[in-house]
Amino acid sequence: PSGILEKDSRAKMQKFQPNVLNTVGGNRTLSQHYLGGEKGFQIISCEAQEGLAKRLVTYNPQRFQYHPTKWGKFADGTDEIEIGGFTPENKIRGEHVLFLASFHNNDVTLSQFHVIQTLCESFVETLTVVLPYYPTGTMERVTKEGQVATASTLARLFSNLPRIGKPIRVAVYDLHTLQNRFYLSGNALASLHSGIPLLLKELGQATSKINCVAFPDEGACKRFSYIFTEAFPDWPIVICGKVRDGEKRIVTIQDGNPDGKHCIIVDDLVQTGGTLVECAGALRRAGAGSVSAFVTHAVFPKGWKKFSKVENESSPFETFFVTNSNPTVTDKLPQEGDVFKVLDIMPQLVKDL
Fold first, then answer.
1. Residue 352 and residue 173: Cα distance in Å, rounded?
2. What pLDDT was estimated at residue 17?
3. Which of 16, 264, 312, 325 could tie 132 with a disulfide, CB 3.0–4.6 Å?
C-alpha cells in the first residue's frame, strides 16, 4: 500500500509540477521548466520570421527556445527541409510548439505546410501557428463561376491537418474580412488579434500631437472606432467614403470635422494605397493640420516610394505607421529621415499567446 501511495503521489506531482520530475536525457525541457502561469514554447520559424523568433528568445529566454530550420531546395526545385529541434535530442515531442509563418508567396506557403504537417505528426502537446498577415483574406468570395476563393481553400488546408488532440491555433492579426475565421474548422481554429494596441501606445506618448482619428470607409469605422473612443474619448472621429462624381468615384468626408486637427487614418492593410492618399487629400482640404496613417499590414505590391518623403516630396503623410506583420516588405522600408515607422509586433504577440 505504501508503494502504491508513493507512486500515486509522484503521478500527481508530475501532473501539476512537470518541471520537477519530467526530464528528457536528464535535462528539463522548456515547457516543463517554465512555471509562471504561462506556457513555454519551442519555436520553429520560416525564414522570413527568423528575426521575430530571435527577438522572442531575447525577450524571454525562459519561455521561448528557438530551433533553426534548414530551408533548402533539391536540384529539381522541390523542398529539402530539415526541421530544428529533433536531433541530437528531440525537444519537440510532448511540447507546446510555436510555428512562425509568413505566406508571402505560394512557394513558401507550400514549404511551410510541409513543416506544419510534420509537426502535427510529431506528438506535440499543442501547436500554435502565428500567421500575422493572412494574405488571401481579400479573396473570400466569387462573383462569377470559375473564380477561386483562395481564402477558403487555404483555410481548408489548415482544417484538414492531422489531429493532435487539441485544435491547432492559427493566430492572425487584423484579418481583412472577419468572416474568414469561420472558414477554419475541425482540426484548426482561428485566433483573432489586433495590432491596434501598438498604435495606441504610440499615440499615448507625450510627443504625439495626433488628436483625431479618421477612417477611409464605414467598414473600418465600425470595426475599429470603439477602440479609439475608449482610449481617447475626447478625440473626434472622421469617416470618409467614396461617392460618384460623373464617371469618377472620389473620396469625401461623410461624417466628422477634422478642421485644425492632427489626424491619423486607420485601416487594416495597404495595397496600392490610392484610397489612403485620397482620404488624406480630403482631410487636408477640410482644414486638417497634418495627416498620418496606420495600417497593420504593409503589402505595397507596386512599391512604397510614392509614400516616402525622400522619394516623393508631395507625399501627404507626416508619419506612416505599419507593423512588421509582413517582414519581407517592412524590412526594406526606409525609416531614418522618412515617414515610415515600423512597430514591432513581438510585444503584442507575447501578450496574445
1. 10
2. 42
3. 325
